[in-house]
Amino acid sequence: MDTWKHFEANELTHSAAHHLFAIYHVGAAYGGWARVSDIARRLNITRGSVSINLRALKKRAWVETDEHHLVRLTPKGLKIVRSVLAKRLILKAFLSDVLGIPDAQAEIDSCKIEHLISHSTGERLAQFLRFLISGPPAARNLVERFRRFHDTCPKSRTCDLCKGECPMDELKRAV
Amino acid sequence: MRTDGTDVVEDLNRLMAEEAEACLRYFQMRFRLRGKGRAAAEKFFDEALKETLEHADAIARQIRSLGHVPTLRINLSLSGGPMRPEDALAEALEVEQQALDAYEEFLPRVSGHGALEDFIRRQIAVETEHVQEILEVVREAAPLKLVAKPTT
């Protein structure tokens, strides 16, 4: 299984994603242009760090700078930001609305995953959400039933999920 | 400037963090250098790390003279493989340019503030010279030499 290598090969790192978001948010009020100092303040890092990190984003043609050292997203960078923000929205909705994870934790966890999942997984998850939320009454009923569902493992400690090893036990031990 | 000077102090803390972080960056950079021009670049970063530390120290003293204790906030993790001297210098240029921009943006906020304004003006002069020097080296692959940097 070489799946872990895909994580390393992911060209959009967590740090890169947050730099792109910062430029997107800071620049929103200024026609897309952002000052390095404002990006630094938003990310709570130094301007030197921002400037060096921007080099990698420039190489990938995700951002561009002007002669006054202002920064803005390229159409390619903007596309990435919008797609990742969409995935964050979908993930957060799934975590909080379906799984019932508290808002703050759902925000943190969706932020961790948003840039790692594929567009197709994001799209399918969105369809699943729509199915559950605005689909047939039976689907909405399923969500309601799940919210009331408090699982306890069978005494035998084996079930269809476990297949020999109980993940619930492992998660409880990890806390 | 706020009457108790706390906003100016906050900006000075940020400037100090820029210099201190640059110092750590240059410290680590020396060990990543590989290839042609390594010895000269290593010497450059040796000097640069001392100078940035002196700058951080000088800013800390300015903060103290305003009656505050310096607060250093750095969020830094440095790794990475071998680096060619020209790439390292290009990074140094980014760092120095940002320091210069930070001093220039700060200057109007200390206008009329005697010693502090003088200090910032001197820093701007030094950083300007430094940026120019690195620019020349990067553009022309000229031999590395360092400018003397007054810190007080």
Topology:
The complex is a heterodimer of chains A (175) and B (152).
Chain A lengths: L2 H7 L4 H14 L8 H8 L3 H13 L3 E3 L5 E3 L1 H24 L4 H11 L5 H16 L2 H12 L18 H8 L1
Antiparallel strand pairs in A: 1-2
Helix pairs in contact in A: 2-3, 2-4, 2-5, 3-4, 5-6, 5-7, 7-8
Chain B lengths: L5 H24 L8 H28 L19 H22 L7 H27 L12
Sum up the structure in keywords.
heterodimer, A: 175 residues, mainly alpha, Arc Repressor Mutant, subunit A, Diphtheria Toxin Repressor, domain 2, 2 domains, 2 strands, 65% helix, B: 152 residues, Ferritin, 4 helices, 66% helix, 0% strand
Write structural notes for this entry.
The complex is a heterodimer of chains A (175) and B (152). Chain A is mainly α. Chain A folds into two domains: 8-73, Winged helix-like DNA-binding domain superfamily/Winged helix DNA-binding domain (Arc Repressor Mutant, subunit A, Orthogonal Bundle); 79-135, Diphtheria Toxin Repressor, domain 2 (Orthogonal Bundle), CATH 1.10.60. Helix content of chain A is 65%, strand content 3%. Chain A has helices at residues 3-9, 14-27, 36-43, 47-59, 75-98, 103-113, 119-134, 137-148, 167-174, and strands at residues 63-65, 71-73. In chain A, strand 1 and strand 2 (71-73) form a beta hairpin. In chain A, helix 2 packs across helix 4 and helix 5 (75-98) packs antiparallel against helix 6 (103-113). The longest helix of chain A has 24 residues, at 75-98. The mean pLDDT of chain A is 88. Chain B is an all-alpha fold. Chain B has one domain (6-140): Ferritin, core subunit, four-helix bundle (Ferritin, Up-down Bundle), CATH 1.20.1260. Chain B has helices spanning 6-29, 38-65, 85-106, 114-140. The A-B interface holds A 36-37, 44-52, 55, 69 and B 14, 17-18, 21-22, 25, 73-76, 90-91, 94-95, 97-99, 101-102, 105.
C-alpha Rg of chain A (nearest Å):
21 Å
Strand order of the largest sheet of chain A: 1-2
What kind of assembly state do the chains in view correspond to?
heterodimer
**Structural class of the helices, strands and pairings of chain A?**
mainly alpha
Number of strands of chain B: 0
Q: What is the overall pLDDT average of chain A? A: 88
